[in-house]
Amino acid sequence: MYFSVFQRVSSLSFCQQLSVIWFVLWSQWGTEGAVVHLYVSPSGSDSNTGLQSSTPVKSLQHAVDLLQSKDIQGNMYRCAVFFFCPQAIFVELMQGYYDLTSTLTFAHAINGTAVFRAFQGQEVHLTGGRHIPSDHFKHVTDTKIQQRLPEVARTKVLELDLTAVGIANLGSLTPYGFGHSAWTAPLELFINGKPLRLAQWPNEKFINILSVPDGEKGRRFTYNAGGRDVAWTQETEPWVYGWWYWSWADESLPVAHVDAHNHTITLAQDSQFGVRVGHYDPIAPTGYSQQGGYFQVINMLSELDEPGEYYIDRTNKKLYLWPNTPLQTLTSSDIVYVSILSRCIRIESVAQKLNFEDFTVENCRQHGVSIANGHDITFKNMEIKNTGSYAINCEGDCRRVSVLASEIHDTCGGVLIKGGDPKTLTSSEVLLQDNHVWDFSRKGAVPCKAFEIGGVHVTVSHNYIHHAQYTGIWWTGNDHVIEYNHVHHMCWNSSDCGAIHSGRDWTWRGNIIRKNHIHHTLRYFPGADVRGIMLDDEYSSVLIEGNVFYDNEVHANIGGGRDNIIRQNVMYNATKNSIQVDGRGLGSGGHGVYLTQKLQESLFNTTLWKTRYPELAAILQKHPTAPEGNQIYDNIFYNRLGIERIQYSGSNLERKDYFDVHNNFRAYSPGNFWSPKDADFRLRCNAVQWADEEQFPSPVSVEDVGPQVPTGPNYLRAHRHPASARTTAVPVACDSSTVAPATTAPRGSYMPDGSSPNTLYPNIPKEGCWFVVDHCPKAPAAEGTHKDDIGTQAGTEEGCLARAAQQWRYCGSSPTGQVVAVYGPTGAMTVAGDGCFFAEYGCQTQNPGFHRDTWAEQHENASHDEAACLARAAPQWAYCGSHADRPITSIYRPTGHFRTGGAGCWIKILSCPADHTLQGYFYDAWGATNLATDHDRNECLERADRFWKQCGSHDNAPVTAFYRPSGASRTVP
Description:
It comes from Pomacea canaliculata. The chain is α/β, with parallel strands linked by helices. It has 17 helices and 69 strands. The strands form 10 sheets. The chain has a 14-stranded parallel β-sheet with strand order 1-2-5-24-27-30-33-36-39-42-45-48-51-54. The chain has a 13-stranded parallel β-sheet with strand order 3-6-25-28-31-34-37-40-43-46-49-52-55, with no helix packed on it. Strands 4-23-26-29-32-35-38-41-44-47-50-53 form a 12-stranded parallel β-sheet. A hairpin with a 4-residue loop joins β17 (251-259) and β18. The longest helix is centred in the first third of the chain and has 19 residues, at 14-32.
């Protein structure tokens, strides 16, 4: 019955069609269930009803208008009263290309859920572009144009008369890059679904700026182009793209003038930060102070010199291209598109409960999908590509928006979305899961992230993110969860960048980054380091746990922030440092004024926020710009010798209230992991014992990160990248012996501290506590050598040595006298008296002795300031040449306290109940050979934890590690 109705309905008016459709829908809903199908086909007709696959409508906008029409919506309201409403309306997109002539707009509410999907998994493309048949392209015959082309391209380049094919909207070239996140591309060219690029030089990498004649705020700069800039002078609309001042701020800019004689370019507008001389070296990238100052020329016909490049002559409306096809030409089977529409799909806030499934959206000059305050919108198994900006952009308060199992690539950004209510900390319930996002920074770098999230509680889970110029995931706001993602090859065209990155806010609390694989984030360009996770400019309070980091320049950093926790991560093979920490907020370079202003503008003083984030509530009661409350513990590290696990950038940062670093494990061999080359970081050998002791969870496997379901439209799945899988390789046997310890220890201190025999007082018995008093005006009988009963009764070395200063004061604190206390069992001794002294084997000679540190007493008040006195040992040892056989001890004689500067890592164990072979004060030869403890301060100090646990972890049996090159020490517990 319905089919005959549909055959006759095409002759009716639109309102009459709707009435017939409503009659049929009413009949279906009442008798066949609450599901309706509306069919669309590029070969259909908008005079059809669309209610059968044999009578599809033609245009998507017509289908949307039918769903949003007042008659349909009114009837749906009436159906709701009588309980005959559809639960879902399926808009079935039949095979083919849907070339939109205007943005597909959802501007009205739709009752029920509308699902737009590829019919039976057919290949469907929704494009914002115009298809150009390949036979419209011709070889260049104009001799003037041929002469302007590079010789290698003259027989390869094709041309298209845009006017002849009816294309007038070419768009405008505008700056892109840093600060241009909402960039709209001009007309672009795509062949067989792949983008071409504007002709540029160099084709790869950049060239350095040689000078800036008008200063860094000027617009002129010089370069060396090897003479090819003669051709640039003929260009009608030349542009340049570069990293003009910072290697974290890229920008394209128009050119006002090219002076080929003086090899000088004049910009048509100012760069955002200025222009500086470049030191770009693709072989050996330089450091922070030499970043920026390199560029490319773009949009030049004279540089159209390889496949995949094109140029548009906007004056004469001509397109020139060198096809990026295998044959480097176009055939009838090649599909050529140019982009026309800014946004392909627009969803306004009133339109909700929309699902998009199983088709491709492409060739949009700005966004593939633009959403305002979207609610209950899902994208599943989509492909979105070839956009000028973010594939999906959801502005305002987005709730319950999901992007699932989709392929997003060749864009400038994947998904930008914010939502939730910061006032009530109500979740946005946004879910970005199981997606494959790659090559998402094809135009510009810094504004283009795979996911840029904000607001409250966005979940980014099980995504595969790779190959981009800048950051993969950028977050702002609160309570986000970033987990089980596979992220690699980020930051490959920039510096001072993180694969996962946030910064400059104290209030973005409650965020979690866990169980991700993050690797191959390496720096190839001058500037600051790149990191797997970057907490920039005093960012505070994120939990980083259970991740696997490998082959990054730096795995993670804490950029001066507070209350960050880094725990239970695998950190393998950093090329510079595993973790970097700093205290940038303590100095003039911090951001305290800005951060405090943002804090005051936030809701941190409300009852809800105080309950949820108690550390934030109390921040102004402390020193808010200090890096307090950070914790780094229960991580496992492997680096090549000489690569630090934790680098402290700044002075006086090695404080437990700033960075509480404890219970970390350093693997001394790659053999502690199953198969690092296969990203299999299951623990083995010595690491297993440590993991069992610390209850360290099994590292997340490569097969458990990234998408767990097929991604993209059905028609693409046969071409998808293979899923990661755990290796079945059998690792080599554990090497439990490691490397034999070194046999030559550095020399013990001249003033014995128990680390070497007491040659100054060799006749002291090996028991008890002893005094050697040379002058005691108040009690002359106490002069000489005799046993100290009080110190002996104390029974400890510490108690004995503390008696020296007490006895000196008892004797009258004579400036001409001193008291020596010697603990017999170890030979350790100290000297009490006045002032600050050195005990040394000699600075320039081998003559040992005690002498006053006159310089420190005169310049640093060291005769009255114990800290100033004791801090002198390590720098004096370095000043004297850092000889392993000439350690230097500083003694603050009023208290008898001392500190030694010298070579090596030394361990002091007074009691070891679980292993009686470990006792005394000894050089850590095994650690020096296998863990570089002689040169790695953190590794040395953490040996105190390992020996204490080996001794049974008794509170009354402490272990101290001394790192003599800096005079640092650590006692556990």
